[in-house]
Design brief:
The chain is 16% helix and 29% strand. It has one domain. It is globular and about 45 Å long. By secondary structure, the chain is of the alpha/beta class. Strands 1, 2, 3, 4, 5, 6, 7, 8, 9 and 10 form a ten-stranded mixed sheet that branches. It contains three helices and ten strands, in the order E-H-E-E-E-H-E-H-E-E-E-E-E.
């Protein structure tokens, strides 16, 4: 099963550290993939959930690309990054498709055939996740 640290979180939400370079790297070093929130502005590529907060380079993304699930937070990021990286965009959608054809299912949304689907969940007690190929969670260490 693919285990994805939501914004780098592995043991619960950590708003101070999530979406920071060191925190993402720590999750990857522990063997997890990481979902990151990415913005693109005229000044560069940024990590950050609600706004562009932490400047990163394209080289930083490239060196981690096999482990990253990039949630593009604006159309500029989606437009620029979709050719080279695994990206997706959604706002309030129940489902979206990543650029490499994974179904990204919002919390609580069911996918009948989860063989190419990622379940995003914050609920550790969900039992209906066994048919998914992966899980993205703030508590990803609990799914090992």
């Amino acid at each position: 099963m693919i285990l994805i640290a939501h914004r780098g979180n592995t043991k619960g939400p950590n708003p101070i550290s999530e979406n920071t370079v060191d925190y993402i790297d720590e999750a990857i070093e522990q063997g997890y993939d990481a979902e990151i929130d990415v913005w693109m502005t005229q000044k560069g590529i940024y990590l950050g959930h609600d706004y562009p907060a932490y400047l990163v380079t394209e080289t930083w993304l490239q060196s981690r690309e096999q482990s990253l699930w990039i949630h593009c937070k604006n159309i500029q990021a989606l437009s620029e990054l979709h050719r080279e990286f695994r990206v997706f965009f959604h706002n309030n959608d129940d489902y979206t498709i990543t650029s490499d054809n994974w179904i990204w299912a919002y919390p609580g949304k069911y996918v009948p055939d989860g063989s190419r689907a990622i379940a995003v969940t914050t609920n550790l007690s969900r039992k209906d996740l066994k048919n998914y190929a992966g899980i993205c969670s703030d508590y990803v260490s609990m799914w090992k």
